[in-house]
User: What shape does this take?
Amino acid sequence: MSRRYLLILSVLIFLACPFLTADSITFSSTEETTFTAIPNLDSFELTLQTGDEIFVFLNNTIYTFVDFHFTFDLEQYSNVQGIGGDFFADSVGSKTAVNFKVTVFHGTGIIPMQKFRIDFSGFRAGTVVTCQPTIKTPEPLTVLLGITGILFIGLPGQRRTRHLR
Assistant: This one.
């Protein structure tokens, strides 16, 4: 008889506990007309007044954002989940940071003139979030290969013009 009471009591305690939602950041594309241009490429800060906020941005740079890093001034209730949408691969961060990255299998990054939405949910009210995008830059060998290719295309033309003189 006592086991039955313990079982019922444990079920009631379980149901009476408040469920904590997981802290998460979600990226998605949007067609909203009200947006904020990315202030600079270094980093920028957002203050979450209620902990559940939505921000809409425009990548008004000439660069593609291939990574997005978030750090928080307040430790959150649980590890922050990152949902990258079409832009980035999903990730799980810590209680103080989360990083989004483009991988080989998932994500295109945020291209120039792309509007995007960032949803914050489950965060502690008053959290200041530092956001830092990373841009895509060509590798040095790729630049060298492109320059030498252009030079070799120009050499036959230079020889022809010498012959005509």
Observations:
- The longest strand covers residues 127-135.
